[in-house]
Specification:
137 residues, mainly alpha, 81% helix
Length: 137
């Protein structure tokens, strides 16, 4: 019993360190202020940081203790939709912080159609994810 308690404690500590490092990485890169600037919600930066940290810690607890989340297939679909939107927003914010789109547009000499390219990338990611889960890889 004591071994399980110690392993659970060590797992939570290690997961907390990794989760904190991931959140600190996003904060240190300035992605949260940029994301808040894009969405015009700069007054809620502390809320973004707190919810990221709480989400990371909650994910750690659910992973270490194998807690079931029972929402059925509809709940799983809604969770997947919002997770995809969240991840897509962060990826685009990171790409914008790294100035990827202006560099690509300049090198490919694009003047028009950048929003269409971004939507095509998103649709490609969706199609790939759906194919991945359909095949059960």
């Amino acid at each position: 019993m004591w071994t399980q308690i110690a392993m659970g404690f060590l797992g939570l500590c290690a997961g907390g360190i990794v989760a904190s490092a991931a959140v600190a990485f996003l904060i240190g890169l300035g992605i949260i202020p940029r994301y808040a600037g894009i969405t015009h919600t700069a007054d809620k930066i502390l809320l973004y940081e707190d919810t990221m940290m709480l989400g990371a810690l909650a994910g750690n607890v659910f992973y270490v203790f194998h807690l079931p989340i029972r929402f059925g297939p509809w709940g799983l679909g809604i969770y997947g939709l919002f997770s995809g939107i969240f991840l897509g927003c962060w990826i685009l914010a990171l790409a914008e912080m790294a100035d990827i789109f202006p560099v690509i547009a300049r090198r490919l000499k694009l003047k028009h159609g950048i929003p269409v390219i971004i939507i095509a990338i998103a649709l490609g990611k969706i199609t790939g994810a759906l194919w991945f889960f359909y095949k059960g890889w």
